[in-house]
Amino acid sequence: MSRQHQKFRNYRQEQRLTQHRVIAAAIFVIVLVCILMARLFYLQVIEYDLYQTKADDNRVMLVTDPPPRGLIYDRNGLVLADNRPIHSLTVTPERVEDVAELRKELSNIIDISDSEWENFDSRLKEYRRPYQSITLKSQLTDEEWARVSVDLYRLDGVQVEAQLTRYYPYGEAFAHAIGYVGRITANDLKRVDQQAYQGALFIGKTGIEGFYEKELFGEAGFSKVEVNARGRIMSQLERQSPVPGKDLHLYLDARLQQYAYDLLGDYKGSVVAIDPQTGGILALVSKPGFDPNLFVRGISVADYSELRQSKKLPLFNRALRGGYPPASTIKPFMALAGLDYGFASWTERYFAKGYYQINPDGRRYRDWKRTGHGWINLERSIIESVDTYYYQLANKMGITPIHNFLSRFGFGRSTLLDLNGDSSGLLPSNEWKKAKYKEPWYPGDSVNVGIGQGFMVATPMQIASATSALASRGRYFYPRMADKIGNESAQFEGDLGGEHDIILKDQGNWERMVNAMRKVITDSLGTARRLQGTKYDIAGKTGTGQVFSLQEDEEYDSEKLDKRLHDHALFIGFAPAKAPKISVFAIFENGGSSSKPADLSKKLFDAYLYDKYPPHYDYLKGKGNE
Q1: Max CA-CA distance within the chain?
Q2: pLDDT digit string (tens) for 447-503?
Q3: What is the distance between the alpha carbons of residues 134 and 610, in angstroms, rounded to a whole number?
Q4: Cα 137 from chain centroid?
């Protein structure tokens, strides 16, 4: 540095400038430190509760414990709907960085089918709660469980969970009576308490499972667990145990149910058996059925399509929704209506030709016996099932008295207490026809209804409950499945909670009608005389329901018709006739001869009343049979 430059340099000024810079830097650092301290104070003191909670949320999880579902028993203590423990491979998508990579890794460990991945992808698109796991593979074998467990430490979001799953041990024969549970959907969550169902996988969909969902489900519990950064449970901090669902004890008799299902053979049809003393449903059969276990953990598209597309309609509950003409099984009720309204008497005689005409030149309504029955009375009309007697009776009465009387027996309305989805059938009236077809009611319409044909449609359950009321001499019980819920008797609200009496103007007509139905079996001309030979009395009535209408002079020839056009075969009956313990309605779709349901009913009577089941049904014995 030159002397001249040093001469003009101001060291004092430079020193002051340096000092100022140091002070400014120190102040800046102090301000930063103060800001940092203030922020730390704000976070650690003022907002302590908030951030402590957030930290706990990352470390502590609240896991809902779904309660064990209540079991369903038959009347003898046999379990019809059980819970079975399984181990399932589950995935929590929020904890998986790359699902495609996870798929590769899992495929190298155990076999996971394409359909299982498809179901997983489908569930992934559906509504679910955040961090709710999705089942990828159910019911792992011991080997699969072990192989997955070894590699769990490196599979983020993957767990093996122990679960209880619903199991129906007796399959398709009970499917329409018991129903089934299925996976909870977004629509299901709209009708339940979402908080209570957090963590639950299943909900009752149909049948008893659906109707008694609240009682069977119970109350959910919860667990507070500590998790690591990968979301794996490290320890349990707190637990409130769930309250198990209540067990259901049904009137249903498992052996009778399975026996009735098997006796239908290859035919489609339905059988409903009721205890006339309680209204309890002893058997509710709709054939064909289906395996309800397919629906529990999510039915595959292929399996569901097969069921939906089957021409036999296995998913259709014929017992509750099947609409059939009651045919001649309606005649005892029509006769009672005629007696009650004064249009018929037990002593009045009627000459039954092979046809009936409303007008001399009008249409001929044919009797099933072309040559006619000759001189008969009301009792003989029941014994021989005389169509022409009921043609003329219905024409004299008109539809209004018929409608009013039959409605007292439950026709034309829903009367079930604890099953959903039943049809009300059709009990026609003048008002109904005007609204439906813009036409008045014609005498010919009444004539057809007189033999349970025409516009009239009834479900097997309706006909069975009406038969039960006839068996109990006018004591009408609303049909019910549940006997006990937990340790208490099942209670029902409102008028449906009990029963009512059907009062006739002459109460003696009940006994006389039962006696006429006994002679359907015991009389040499009775239409069910093939049932003779029992050590107890059976009261019954056969029926043949037309599937299509014949022209006036057209002959019915089953050999020339396709099987689906054959007549339906029906039978109603109860036993013992004097003090009935069981009433039955049976229908064979396109069965032709009414001997089939009559024979079936007799076998059910023998089995239920005298324990005459084939030996191979012993596996359905419950504790009450031992």
Answers
A1: 158
A2: 999 999 999 999 999 999 999 999 999 999 999 999 999 988 888 765 455 578 999
A3: 51
A4: 27
CB 457 within 8 A of CB 224: no
Q: Where does 251-316 show beta strands of DSSP type E?
A: 269-274, 281-287
Q: Which residues contact 205 (CB under 8 A, 6 or more apart)?
A: 179, 180, 181, 182, 295
pTM: 0.83
Positive or negative torsion for Cα 450, 455, 456, 458: positive
CB–CB of 208/184 below 8 Å? no
Residues with Cβ within 8 Å of 304's Cβ and at least 6 positions away in sequence, in order, are none
Beta bridge partners of 356: 365
Q: Spell 29-55 as b/e; 16+ CB within 10 A means b.
A: eeeeeeeeeeeeeeeeeeeeeeeeeee
Structural contact between residues 207 and 182, judged by C-beta atoms closer than 8 angstroms: no
* Closest to 617 measured CA to CA, from 570, 289, 606: 606
Residues 172, 289: Cα–Cα separation, whole Å = 5
pLDDT, tens only, 398-419: 999 999 999 999 999 887 888 8
Active site residues: 328
Q: What is the separation, in whole angstroms, between the first and last Cα of the chain?
A: 121
